[in-house]
Amino acid sequence: MTTPERVALFKCLADKSRLEILESLSAAPMYVEQLSKRLGITAPTVSFHLKKLEASGLVEAKKEQYYTVYSLREALLNQTMMNVVLSGSRALLDEREEAYRQGVIKSFFKYGKLQTIPVQRKKKLIILEELVKSFEKGRTYTEKEVNLILADFNDDFCTLRREMIVNQLMTREKNIYTRI
To answer: pTM for this one?
Structure first.
């Protein structure tokens, strides 16, 4: 559930009439006129609230002969408050992290070349993760092959190679390198 959907859901629930409609629908599916009589509010008002509830995903409508019968969508109502409140935060964090990552890559790479090796650990790791994509998983490389690939990005390929080992992006055993 996205943040705008969660906001719409909570706004929808912040109304006494809508809560009463949901309570009535928990007993059984009903049509507008039944809800109107039961709650003592006009049919157009009930329709207005049902449209809001339907838009937020709490209620579903089904045509039966001349009437539109409304019922609860229990899947959404059975979620815990914790799930509803936190469902969008992970996606938002991932989105922000990816934007930060792309910003770091953009600021350190010009025309496919690594301008400088970042000093800050987090930025350095992002750059190294980007560089390690140049190596195939499962394939072994000689030190010379690793140097040639890394030299395409920056002249200080020795530091890059060492940092990839230290940050466990590659392994080295008897001068044979493998991407992890």
So the answer is: 0.53
